[in-house]
């Protein structure tokens, strides 16, 4: 006949509430009840100690609790792992080796199964014991314990892997920041009537391993709580390099909403003339408090900083950004400009955004222009500024300066001499 506690466990494991339940705690409780034991616990073997990580011991919490530890020489774990004791002991006094151990005075019945990681390494033990012998315990009970121990080992292994991955990622990002393994390239923003750069967007590049797109570095930094630090480093570096740009040539830096509302964000601009600085906020990042975002930007915009909404038309937040933040610049996303000359829907949406910008006093910049046909179509729609491989690829600042007209470069040489 099935044990109700086992049925309850299996039902809860597949229920919605099980996602919020602690599988390890539930497994210990279920097995302890099924075996009619006093105590169940999961231990981790650390050096020569058994450290209790999870404990189910109703009424005995003062005697055994998470965090307690015992020497492996004083408990059964090591001897079970090394084959001197069996995993199942219905009556510990009948096991000659166990009978000679002091701990046996307090333990009458004992079941213990190793918890192994995927690589075979022993993490610890899944154990149940009672003060009195339990002669009814048999191989079937041991197999049930092994089955639950397998589930627990899988859960512990997944948690450990997640923790190890987290530590590895955080170490990698910390190393990247500490060793300045980030460089900046600058892509021109072009006046489509003169085909001359009027500004540059700064874009981060990473030299560390693994080699991957910049957005994956920022995504990983966000995963480990260092996204703001990495973004601030990119902004500071961009502004330092952009100090050599001629007056009237803008530099755009990218910032997520989370960075903008961070108290450190405003400090980055201390002492700078903000007239030629543009902050681009990506449309793909969801904002919970537009008021806080606007308040963080207001003192900087009062000093001349311009606000751009990046990737407009490519995500879910664009309308809210444009309506609530009153941007100076709206940048059409590459998903909207790509093949705009052959797609009536894209053309209509781009035209609507151009009209919106003209009526609200914002400038439009089309991103991702890669063909002459796209450029011609966008100009016909009233777009006067653009960015993309057709107009200029990202380059180191020294090379980006070569894209400027000769008089701008001469002025810059005089300014930095």
Automatic annotation (TrEMBL):
Highest taxon of the lineage = Bacteria
Entry's InterPro entries? Cyclic-di-GMP_PDE-like, EAL_dom, EAL_sf, GAF, GAF-like_dom_sf
Which parts of the chain are coiled coil? Answer: none
PROSITE patterns, per this entry? EAL
The protein's name: FOG: EAL domain
Q: Which residues form the EAL domain?
A: 166-408
State one molecular function term (GO): cyclic-guanylate-specific phosphodiesterase activity
